[in-house]
Structure formats: C-alpha cells, structure tokens
Amino acid sequence: MKRRTTHKKKSHPKIKLRLHPQNKHRERYDFKQLTDTCPELAQFVKLNMYNDESIDFSNPEAVKILNKALLKHYYDVEHWNIPQGYLCPPIPGRADYIHHIADLLRNYNYGKTPTGNKIKCLDIGVGANCVYPIIGNKEYDWSFIGSDIDPVSIENGNKIIELNSFLKGKIELRLQNNPKDFFYGIIQKDELIDFTICNPPFHASLAEAQSGTLRKLSNLNHEKITKPILNFGGQNNELWCEGGEERFIREMIRESKKFATSCFWFSTLVSKQSNLKSAYKALEKAEAVEVKTIPMGQGNKTSRIVAWTFLTKEQQNKWRNTRWTETL
After folding, report:
1. Could you tell me which residues are beta bridge partners of residue 269?
2. For residue 122, which of 118, 196, 296, 314 is within the disulfide window of CB 3.0 to 4.6 Å?
C-alpha cells in the first residue's frame, strides 16, 4: 500500500525583510484582498502542499492574472494585459529597483527624494508590460521614457497607457530601431535624463534560457521538468542576447560615456555576481566618476544594481540645484 506524503505546515516570516522598506509587497500576498480587487484571480488560488493559499507559479496564465491583481490593488491600474509569450515580471522585484533608485537620488539631494514629473527616467527595454514606469510614476510621480527594440512591446505599452488615464503624458514609449544601440536614437539632442534603469537579457543563448527555465520549474514543482514552459513568459530579446548579460552591460557602459552630460545616473541590474568584475572593468575604462553597487534580495534570490555617473562634483551640484531642488 502506497503511503501518502504529507508536508508539515511551513512557517513564513510575516515580513520579507530582504525587500526595500518602502516596498508595498513585503508582506505575504493577501489572496482575499487580491481576489476582491480582481475576481478573475480566484480561479487560480488553491491551497498548496503546506496548506497556504497560493497560485501555481509554473502556470503562465496564473502568474499573469496575479500581476494584473497586484497592479490594480497597489497601483490603481484598471486595465493591464500583455500579449501571449511576453515577459510577465515579478512585481515585488521591480518595485524594489524603483525604491533603491529613489534612495540613490535622495542621497545626492540633501536627504530629500526628488519627486514630480520633472524628474525623468529612461527604462531601457521597457517590454510589453510597462511595469517599471507604472510603479515609478505611481510611487514618486516621475515621468518616464520607455525604449524597446520590439514594435509589439511598444504597441502594447501604449495601449496600457491609453487605457489608464493617469499614465497619459507621464510615460512616452520610443522604438529603438538599432538593436545594438542603447541611447543613440532614444535620448534626443539637449534632452536631460535624471537616471536610467535596465533589466538586461540574462542568458547568452536560447538553449541557456531554456535550461534555466527547466531548472526553475523543477524547483517550483519539486520534480524534474523536461519541457520548458516560460511561467513568466519572455520573447527571445527579453531573455537572451549574444554574449548574455555580461556583454550587454559592457556595451551599455561603453555607449553611456557618449551621453555623459545628458544623464545624472546610469544604472542596470546585474543578476550574476560573476559579471560584476567585467562591469567594473568597463566602468574604469569609460572613466566613470562615481560607481555605486546596491544589493537587492527577494526570497532566495540575490541581485544588485550597479549605478554610475560621469558628472563631476561641480556638475552634480549644478544638476541638483537646477533640476531637483525645485521639486522639494
């Protein structure tokens, strides 16, 4: 007779201490609240093996509707959708990046976070989901430029902006016609950007991306999975590029030097610790004036933001006094 496996009730910390203190997602998901806000989530909420309410995080549709509920409940986004197969990012991690950038600006602005739509951010690779601009605008009233090499992403992002009136005039999406460029063709002549953010493609090839997905799904399901289903979705250009994250970041740093006085802080996520050495080397070669590494953590995953500026102290003071102090 086969014995039934039972799992002891898992105890969870009430607060996810590794998330930023300002992050609205530090507590465990309240599925009652979320299903009240977004009733279509209810069909995906089940008791997991530990007898906790949850969703099947290996189901792409469930993950997408959870995101829809989170964006509606916490950020007042009434209408949000992405085309099938496009990246559906984890909201808590995206919010963390935004709050850490706010800290960085505050530390360079007499201890006050610059807010308001005069503060302009460039999101490189905004994707079809438009999540970074949504969170940044809702939390700090910043205005955003979102760039992407994929016309479908731009089209879908514009649809999200159009359907949520509070985003109109706050987020502008621009198509990057040259996949090898980051800032050329996007930052216009005499345009000033207060900071850039970026979530680079993680992998160096499709095979590597699929292998990573299988590993993640096997961990989620507690069994070996052999067929890759992208639970968070993602097109090729969102998940991998030639040379992977390391080369992508190196090239971005190299090109950023050409826009040294157009932007105060450039920044990017660096998912792999092993890629930091290459990034630091590229920053040294580009003669960045200051470099900051900001650790981030979510669950068992550790990541970091690397930010750099080419502005001298005098230039920083001028920027701060002409653009930021007016917003205080």
Report:
1. 305
2. 196
pLDDT at 51 over 90: no
Cα separations in angstroms, 177 against 146, 150, 151, 234: 13, 9, 9, 20
Q: Is residue 308 part of a domain?
A: yes
Residue 96 makes CB contacts below 8 A (sequence gap 6+) with: 19, 20, 23, 296, 298
Domain of residue 216: give its range: 85-327
Nearest to 255 by CA among 268, 244, 270: 268
Please check whether residue 36 lies inside any domain of the structure: no
Nearest-CA neighbor of 196 among 294, 295, 309? Answer: 309
Taking the C-alpha atoms of residue 167 and residue 143, their distance in angstroms, rounded to an integer, is: 9
Q: Determine, yes or no, domain membership for 66.
A: no
- Mean of the per-residue pLDDT values of the chain: 87
- The per-residue pLDDT for range 57-69, each reduced to its tens digit, is 889 999 999 999 9
Answer yes or no: is pLDDT of 244 > 80. yes
pLDDT in tens, 174-195: 999 999 999 999 999 999 999 9
Name the nearest CA neighbour of 283 among 306, 259, 315, 311: 306
CATH number at residue 90: 3.40.50.150
233 pLDDT band, cuts 50/70/90, is: low
In 3D, which of 293, 319, 289, 291 has the Cα closest to residue 304?
293
The stretch 249-270 carries a mean pLDDT of 98
Q: What distance in Å separates the CA atoms of residue 145 and residue 126, rounded to the nearest whole number?
A: 9
Total count of domains within the chain: 1
Confidence of residue 228 (pLDDT cuts 50, 70, 90): very low
Please name the residue that has the structure tokens 């800290």: 103
What whole-number distance in Å separates Cα of residue 133 and Cα of residue 115? 14
Residue 26 lies in a domain: no
Residue (of 111, 152, 149, 107) closest to 129 by Cα position: 152
